[in-house]
Amino acid sequence: MTSSIATHLPAAVAFSTASVPAEGLLSLAWLLVALPLAGAATLLLVGRRADAWGHWLGVLASAASFLVGFAMFIALLGRPADDRIVNLHLFDWIPAGNLNVEAGLQIDPLSLTFVLLVTFVGTLIHIYSVAYMEHDVDRRRFFAYLNLFVAAMLVLVLADSYLLLFVGWEGVGLVSYLLIGFWFQSTANAVAAKKAFIANRIGDLGLLIALMLMFATYGAVDFTTVLGGVDGVSQGTLTAIGLMLLLAACGKSAQFPLQSWLGDAMAGPTPVSALIHAATMVTAGVYLIVRSGPIFDGAPDAQLVVVIVGAITLIFGAIIGCAKDDIKKALAASTMSQIGYMILAAGLGPIGYALAIFHLVTHGFFKAGLFLGAGSVMHGMGDQVNMRQFGALRTYMKATYITFAFGWLAILGVPPFSGFWSKDKIIEAAFVGEGWRPWVFGTVALLGAGLTAFYMSRVFFMTFFGAKRWNDGHKTRPGTALSKQPVQHPHESPRLMVWPMIVLAIGSAALGGLLSIGNVFQTWLEPVTGHVEEHEPVLAVWLIMTLTLALVAAGLWLAYVQYAKAPVPVVVPVGSVLTRAARKDLYQDDVNDALLVEPGKYLTRSLVYGDRQVVDGAVGGLGHIMVRLGEVVRRSQTGYVRSYAAMMTVGLVALVAVVLATRI
Amino acid sequence: MTGGFTAPQIDWAQLAPIIIVLGAGVVGVLVEAFVPRGVRRNVQLALTLLASAGALIAVAALWSGVRETGGTSVVGGSILLDGPALVIQGVVAALTLIALLVVADRTETGESAFAPAAAAVPGSDYEQLARRAGLEQTEVFPLIMFAAGGMMIFPAAGDLLTMFVALEVLSLPLYLLSGLARRRRLLSQEAAMKYFLLGAFASAFFLFGVGLLYGFAGSVRLDAIAEATTTVVGLDPLMLAGVAMLLVGLLFKIGAVPFHSWTPDVYQGAPTPITGFMAACTKAAAFGALLRVVYVVVPSIVWDLRPALWAVVILTMAVGTLVALVQTDVKRILAYSAIAHTGFILTGVVALTSSGITSVLFYVLAYGAASIGIFAIVTLVREVGPDGVVLGEATHLSQWTGLGRSNPWLAVTFSLFLLSFAGIPLTAGFIAKFTAFSAAVEGGATPLAIAGAVASAIAVFFYVRIIVLMFFTDAPRAGDRTGAEVTVVKSEGLTTVAIALTALLTVLLGVFPSPVLDLMAQAAKFIP
């Protein structure tokens, strides 16, 4: 086991940019995007007439896309490893002078990993949503957006240039906005959607600047040119591009300091939280950094910033997760923290790229499973999300309880569940290196594991263990606070919801181990991430593993004592300073308000004032002058032929005079 | 004169577009004489539509030959069938075809835009009688054919006399057509009279210029004059004055300042379908002729003409734009907008580069299509009398208020044409302006391009004002309106087809301009 878990350090980083044109089955890759896009278009255009069958069309489009993706996967496996980067030219997109962008898809192990994850988990969540959204009048619109999301996400990961990637990037941002605000009738949801959109815009700005820098440097924005040509570019430029890409990743992946939107994004329907805000879209930042590996390899400073951002977010999210009482927000904080792990891994360079993607995949499974479990609990509990009013649900919702437990064990990193294989390797990789870095980042990653164990166990125990803290209608003493709550009849969810949870639970249990046998996943990604030699961390591997497991056990035990053994107060206790801060997302919103929102408001107010007084004044004034001039000139239009003829004559004389004057 | 007359070798095939159209005009006159009144209109309409389509096909058939040889000289050099000439002929044929649809449409009221009996005194009993009898002045159709025939010769003329004849052939029917409006007949007749007088005046200038140039070069052929500008010495004032007067004749036809005064009055007074036809086709033909004179004769004396031409261009853009700002009548706004556009097209003319030719050819097509479409829409917006009888066109701006709510399709299409005029991207007008201004920059006329851009910016105001009126201003409630009530009449279908075609062209030329631009770039070469 030691050898398989031992971490790696780059030898010569062999980044393969040689690609071959698509042929045969692979030339059908456009179907991957076209199918869900057609689904979305149909559902949106046909409108209410599709209400009866629209959701099944959505499921079908997503499933068909998965089947195509799976066929691609088989086709790619049939090729030698060197031939696994395939380009499919679609059309000449922007033939504009110096900039010549072709729209094309790049099918390689990395993009295909995402395709499989997005379409497989996406299809499961589509099926889940059929039941979850059954009573919503807008279910068809919901499925249209989900299909649109799948299409946009696939554009993002399949693009062969940063510009096309940007199209997908904006596409998923748009769908995220639409789905967070799906129930826009409530102002809070609309505000949350706007907040997510604006925070994402800041990141998008980073991506745009990176695009411009690339164009200025290379004159092109396709992966082959940009990533293949890093050798001839100065480190300063690469650092700038890298930092801008990181800013983009921070926006999309809710990393510090742009993380504040993710918690509010839970306003969307729970399947959305599972698919977009846990399993796929928010991991796009990790994809961006891994895809741009050569740029970061050439810019150690940018890489260090990536690791720092990852480390901060990891702890940040974990602390917030410890204090949240809203089950979805606790899970959102956990997502933030887990993506922090991935970003941290991606910042470690070639040694970490494959690990980041590995954790991304396993996380996609167990976090989606956890969210669907949360959705199932909400479904049974009348949309209640406050964990203080759950408790003892394990007897009422068996399937949800067991599948949730699988996800919980996976995220804790308990062997042999998936998270153990992926997260432990990241912790080990964080301990690799020289000087102060391995000690700092390794310790942070290690601590994070303990915190994760605590807050996830807290969620688990508060929901499924302990005493009932909800009104069951007969055993509650009248007059207490509890009796004023609506009566709950917790029940298991319909089969359409349970089966996806079971499939995801199986993935949470087994996927990590399966993909670790003989390093099969890392080998699969090698054509993109490069081959790395093994390297020993500063602490012995067994010691790291033992420490990790010990911390996990400690976190679990602490949570058990506090939330399963001891009664959980229904009324929120005051808590320590740290708890109060964590409940308020460590004051990130207040910081944003003070630093950005208020000055921004002031700026816009003064701009509006300036616009009215100065710009409008000038324009209006000019306009008046123009109208006056018009009035004057208009007077020459008397309506008398004689004056028209006179004008012509004068014009003729003047014309001839001017022409002749040139010869004087 | 002992040698007798030798008949020139004539390559009739090259003249096919012209012959088809003029032939249809002649046949049309016979139709007037021999075909019974009941079917006359339909026969005329079919004949003229067929002739325009036939001319268009003939142009297409001639295209490959012209592309290979660069052009042929026909009738001993009197007609030069080269790229620009052929493109203009094609544009005129196509736009005439569309304009005819609008001309023929009688709308749901069953009344065409033309006076039932043009000879009747306005307001007389005879006029009432003719109206009740349902008479129609179907001579309109052959007149249009004659005008179109002149327009097709005009840009292809190889000598100044042919050019003058073409000028008169195209002008005389237009004078008549302008006076044929069914409603506000006095205004219409006044407009026709003004147009005729000033047109005759301009023709006189043109002829005077021809005379001076003949005195200078000893020939009226353009190539001979062009050659003489470099060889003959000592007669420069004669030549310069001659060219200047020639240009005045042409600038009058395109409506450039200060020879533009007729435009607003005639555009307003003429029957609206004819206004659209004039705005589109006359402009195309006159610009074709102007291009030939400027590109064949002027290059060697460009430094002498440049200040005067620049002044004309800037004045045209400025006056057209500024006066349009203070107009309240839709047709007059469009007339001044036409003047401003003349200025914009002129920037491409004075660029004196081959991309300048391309830009002018493209511009006249884009502008012409939008013009026919926009005037076609004007024909449908009518006033209603107190007794519910549909009257003439409601052309006062205030009457267009709220049209976007009551007739969204009509208003959206109208806005599309306005946006094209304003040069908003994704419309043909944008591409046209862009190519014209970039040609000007390329040809060293950057100040003109800047002036054009400024004028365009100001012009957006009055275009968008109409859109705002239609969509974002509440229509006054019934009774509150100052003028008569307004309604939108249904067309017989012909006008709708014309509007759809022109709108389609406006969008297509705006979104996929490259095929047409490439074609016109290939055509942008005059033969001497």
UniProtKB/TrEMBL annotation, chain B:
Major subcellular location class: membrane
Q: From the UniProt record, give one GO term of the biological process aspect.
A: ATP synthesis coupled electron transport
Q: Where is the NADH:quinone oxidoreductase/Mrp antiporter transmembrane domain?
A: 157-458
Please provide, in alphabetical order, the Gene Ontology terms of the cellular component aspect for this entry: endomembrane system; plasma membrane
Catalyzed reaction equations = a quinone + NADH + 5 H(+)(in) = a quinol + NAD(+) + 4 H(+)(out)
Q: Which UniProt keywords apply?
A: Cell membrane, Membrane, NAD, Oxidoreductase, Quinone, Translocase, Transmembrane, Transmembrane helix, Transport
Give the enzyme's main class according to its UniProt record, as a single word. Answer: translocase
> Pfam families attached here?
Proton_antipo_M
Indicate how the chain sits in the lipid bilayer.
Answer: Multi-pass membrane protein
- Presence of the UniProt keyword Translocase in the record: yes
Q: Which InterPro entries match?
A: NADH-Q_OxRdtase_suN/2, ND/Mrp_TM
Q: Which HAMAP family match?
A: NDH1_NuoN_1
Q: Say what the protein does.
A: NDH-1 shuttles electrons from NADH, via FMN and iron-sulfur (Fe-S) centers, to quinones in the respiratory chain. The immediate electron acceptor for the enzyme in this species is believed to be a menaquinone. Couples the redox reaction to proton translocation (for every two electrons transferred, four hydrogen ions are translocated across the cytoplasmic membrane), and thus conserves the redox energy in a proton gradient.
Q: What assembly does the database describe for this protein?
A: NDH-1 is composed of 14 different subunits. Subunits NuoA, H, J, K, L, M, N constitute the membrane sector of the complex.
Would you identify the family this protein belongs to, as annotated? Belongs to the complex I subunit 2 family.
PANTHER family linked to this entry: NADH DEHYDROGENASE
The name this protein goes by in its record: NADH-quinone oxidoreductase subunit N
Q: Which organism was this protein described from?
A: Pengzhenrongella frigida
